[in-house]
Amino acid sequence: MARVGAELRRQDFVEATVKVIAEYGVANATTRRIAAAADCPLATLHYVFHTKDELFYAVYESLFNLPHQALEHVAAGSTAADSAAEMLRHLITWFTAHPELAKAQTELFYWTLRNNPEMASKIFAVASEAIERELERAIGSQLDPAFLQSTSRLLIQLVDGLIIAWAAHKDSARLKAETETACQALKLFVANR
């Protein structure tokens, strides 16, 4: 049997953790269950990730990067308001195409908020900074730094709220209509800076 590098195993464990959390919830995401889902020995999981918090943070890092890749496709050069709304649309589209990841991210964040508030704060800060960078890339210097930060935080709050509502009602047509309402609100917020 060929040896698999630690980095590849790391990704296997991250993907398995997402699946386990989406199916069983964070409270039932045991390291045994995660190792089994990754088809790896439990000892390998503990070798690659020394603590469960370390594993969960690696899941967060991967979850940050995936939806933000969708933001690279938001065209730069339109108005700041249009760009912000388009970013919101792209994020919702990405999450609806990956419901398992959306569910795992939400579950994991609330679990972390209860069990490790410092980590939850760090995770929110990293997410805000990533959205801020993408907004800045798409709209350039159209917004001053303080307003750019406010806009990125509002965008995150809208995405989170829409995804949580969609998880509850499971109606894609309703999500699309609610997303357009949120996009209009975001556009008004940015346009009236």
UniProtKB/TrEMBL annotation:
Domain of life where this protein originates: Bacteria
Pfam families for the chain: TetR_N
Positions of the DNA-binding region: 30-49
Name under which the protein is recorded: TetR/AcrR family transcriptional regulator
InterPro entries: Homeodomain-like_sf, HTH-type_TetR-like_transc_reg, HTH_TetR
Keywords tagged on the record: DNA-binding, Transcription, Transcription regulation
Occurrences of domain HTH tetR-type (ranges): 7-67
